[in-house]
Amino acid sequence: MFKPKSVFNGFSVDDLDKAKVFYTKILGLKVEDATGGASILLPGGHKAWMYTREDHQPATYTMLNFVVDDIDEAVDEITNRGVSFEHYEGSPQDEKGIMRGKEHHMGPNIAWFKDSAGNILSVLEATE
After folding, report:
1. How far apart are CA 25 and CA 89, in angstroms?
2. Architecture label for domain 9-125
3. CA dist list (Å): 87 to 4, 47, 77, 95
4. How distant, in Å, are the alpha carbons of 8, 9, 47 from that of 2?
5. Is 64:48 a contact under the CB 8 Å cutoff?
6. What pLDDT score was predicted for residue 41?
7. What's the CA gap between 66 and 124, in Å, rounded?
8. pLDDT digits over 79-104, tens only?
9. Left (φ > 0), alpha (ψ -120 to 50) or beta: where does 64 sit?
10. Cβ contact 98:72 at 8 Å
11. What percent of the chain has pLDDT over 90?
């Protein structure tokens, strides 16, 4: 029977050193070096594994979602750290890049941005 002991996701980056700086300095997460890559310690006790890949292609989907209590505060803080939020054609996003999903009956309030390797991440507002 299939009984995994734990689960983690993994993704590639083009420059591990730049990615470690992004995840620690911009997002405030702890990163631990390991053979072949690094583990990002995520909230809730989870981990993500990142590794360098020479032919890295950025994820074209949202690969990590960071749940926050106040999306405006989170977007402002990350923007102040030098990150630009994505704006998608046809999406009801405001000037900050936040899609106000609750107002449009389209899911949570969410905003997308990219890590140093171009992988897509998001912050989304916790719902009750």
Report:
1. 30
2. Roll (3.10)
3. 38, 28, 18, 9
4. 16, 18, 21
5. yes
6. 96
7. 6
8. 999 999 999 998 889 999 999 988 88
9. beta
10. yes
11. 79
What are the residues facing 124 on neighbouring strands?
67, 110
Query: Would you call 110 exposed, middle or buried from its count of C-beta atoms within 10 A (0-12, 13-18, 19+)?
Result: buried
Pairing of strands 120-125, 30-34: unpaired
- Residue 128: per-residue pLDDT: 64
Q: How confident is the model at residue 21, as a pLDDT? A: 97
**SS3 of residue 39 by DSSP:** strand
The closest of 76, 59, 72 to 116, measured between CA atoms, is 59
Q: What are the percentages of helix, strand and coil residues in the chain, rounded to 5?
A: 20, 35, 45
Q: Mean pLDDT for the chain? A: 94
How far is 81 from 75, CA to CA, in rounded Å? 10
pLDDT digits (tens, 9 = 90+) for 5-23: 888 899 999 999 999 999 9
